[in-house]
Amino acid sequence: MRLYLPGWPFASCRECAVHIAQLGVESQIVLRTSPVFDSHLDQIECIEFTCPPTSCGLKRLAGILEFYLGRYYQTPDTRRDTARLVRGTQEFALTRGVPVRWLFGVN
C-alpha cells in the first residue's frame, strides 16, 4: 500500500510511518526523486507499507490514518493535490472526517 500525503511536513510523515510500523508491518518513507528541485514541494513521495494481516491490525491502521488525517488535513499544498491511499490498482481519496475503516472492510 502507498499513502500519499502531499504538503505534509517531513516529521509528520515520519511519525505516521513509525506508528504504522508499530503494527508489526513493514513501513518506509519513499523520498521524492524529481530531478528538478522545487522548495514549494514536500520531500516525501509517499509512505509505503504492507497491510496488517489481521482485522484487529486493520482497525488499528484505520485509526492511525484517521488520526493523522484529522490532525494534518489542512496542511497547505501548492499542487492542489489530495491525500490518497493506493491499494494495489485501486486509488482512494482521503478526506478529513470520512472514516477510513470502510476501505479495509472493518468496523
Which key phrases capture this entry?
alpha+beta, globular, 107 residues, five-stranded antiparallel β-sheet, 3 helices
Give an account of the 3D structure.
- The protein is an alpha+beta fold and 107 residues long.
- The chain has three helices and five strands, in the order E-H-E-E-H-E-E-H.
- It has a five-stranded antiparallel sheet, with helices on one face.
- Strand 4 (84-87) and strand 5 (90-93) form a beta hairpin.
- The two termini are 20 Å apart.
How much is the average pLDDT? 83
Proportion of helical residues: 25-40%
Poorly predicted sequence stretches spanning 5 or more consecutive residues: none
Q: Pairing-aware structural class of the strands and helices?
A: alpha+beta
Give the N-to-C terminal Cα separation.
Answer: 20 Å
Radius of gyration: 13 Å
Strand fraction band?
15-25%
Q: From N to C, what is the helix and strand string?
A: EHEEHEEH
Number of helices: 3
Number of strands: 5
Strand order of the largest sheet: 2-3-1-4-5
Shape: globular
Main sheet attributes: strand count, strand direction, barrel closure: 5 strands, antiparallel
